[in-house]
Amino acid sequence: MAEEAFVMRAHRLLAPRIAYLIGTSTPEGGPNLIPVSNVTSVSTDPQHVAVAVFKKWDTFRAMMTSSGFTLSVPVSSQLDAVWKLGAKYSHFPAGSTEEKLRASGIDWDLERSGYGPVVPSGIGWMSCRTIARIDLAGDHVTFVGEVQAAWFNPKFLHSDGTPVASVHPVMQQTGNRFTTAGHEMWTMDYFRE
């Protein structure tokens, strides 16, 4: 394969990535959830996250004008719902956003954040006020949000965010290939005295 072909696929070296569910409101004010794996923490004090959203998606248009967004972390047993929520990418036949949400079968809550729906049955969620929109002339725009509220599902995480046991988020390898975290968890103590 030519080196140029590798460059066009370089982002695949960053996989697997957790598939987060980004919640927004549609232009009509209804709820919307889509899976996005281009997410990272960019500050811990204050808590800031960056989300890169494809410019051709309705969610991009919503995030360009909204004051914030939500981010939920689904578990591996919710993969079917995640795939259906990614209807534009997965080509799941949903005629409208409302039909897509209903067909996904995932539970969502619109009362916990004014920015969009959250998924209370996942690993946890956060509600973020948008503080920056960064367009570097690529096919995605990066949205930076300051975390306003967060919740850890006690089924998966302790109140300090550490896992109760092995946590299995949905992770995208590439395209329609998914995986999850392994069944073992290691704790490394390099500087034990």
From TrEMBL:
SUPFAM superfamilies: FMN-binding split barrel
InterPro entries: Flavin_Rdtase-like_dom, Flavoredoxin, Split_barrel_FMN-bd
Domain Flavin reductase like: 14-170
Record keywords, A-Z: Flavoprotein
Superkingdom per UniProt: Bacteria
Cofactor list: FMN
Similarity-based family: Belongs to the flavoredoxin family.
Stated name of the protein: Flavin reductase family protein
Taxonomic placement: Bacteria, Bacillati, Actinomycetota, Actinomycetes, Mycobacteriales
